[in-house]
Amino acid sequence: SNQWSLPLNSVPSFTFLISFSSSPPSFLLLSSASTSNYGTHKVSLKLYYESLCPYSANFIVNYLVKLFDDDLISIVDLSLVPYGNARVGRNDSITCQHGPNECLLNTVEACAINAWPELDGHFPFIYCVEYLVYKRKYTQWESCFEKLGLNPKPISDCYKTELGKKLELEYAAETDNLQPPHKYVPWVVVDGQPLYEDYENFINYICEAYKGPVEPTACKASSISVI
After folding, report:
1. pTM here?
2. 20: Cβ–Cβ under 8 A, 6 or more apart, which residues?
3. Where are the domains of the chain?
4. How confident is the model over 21-62, as pLDDT tens digits?
C-alpha cells in the first residue's frame, strides 16, 4: 500500500550518516583486527528483504544497525539479499511488489554488494538508501554516493547493464529456494533457522547460536535483559 507509518520511538543511531561527506562512521570500518578474538566461530545472519518495503527499511535503519554497537558485528557473518517478494516471469523479467522503482533499487543494492563485497563497503551505502526509503525520500538515493564519498560508476555500470539483472536473478533463485520458504519480508535467518515474526529479537538468537570462546559485550547485556 502507499500509506504506511513507522515507529519513531527510537532515533536511528546513524542519523548523522546522511550529512557527512567523506567517509563512513569509524565504527563501520570493520578491520580484520576487530574480529581476531572471535576466530572462525561467526554466526550466519541473512536478511532477505526488498528495497521499498517499509518494514524492511525500518528493520535495517532501527534494528540491524545495532550489530555495530559494541563488538557484536565481530561474531556475525552478515549477508543481505535484496529481492524479497519479487517474481520472475517470461524471459527472466522481474516484477517487484512495490513496482519498477523497487526493482531499480533492489538492483542498485545488489550491484553495491557486488562492487564492494566487504561489509564496510556496501552496508553504509545500503543503509543510506534505506534511510531515505524510511524517510520517504528514496528518489534521492543517488545522493548517497556523495554523502559517502563513493564513486557511482561501478554501480551505474552494473544496474544499467545485464550484470545487474544477472545479480538479481541469482538473488531470486536463492530467495525462491529457501527452506522453509519465506512468507514475508523482512525474512531474517540465523544459522539457517528463520526467526519468523520474532525477527526484531535477532540479537538474542545470534548470542544463543554463538559458540566461540569470547562472548561479545552485547551478548552479556542480552543475557542480562532476558533474565
Report:
1. 0.85
2. 147, 148
3. 40-226
4. 334 444 454 443 344 456 578 999 999 999 999 999 999 999
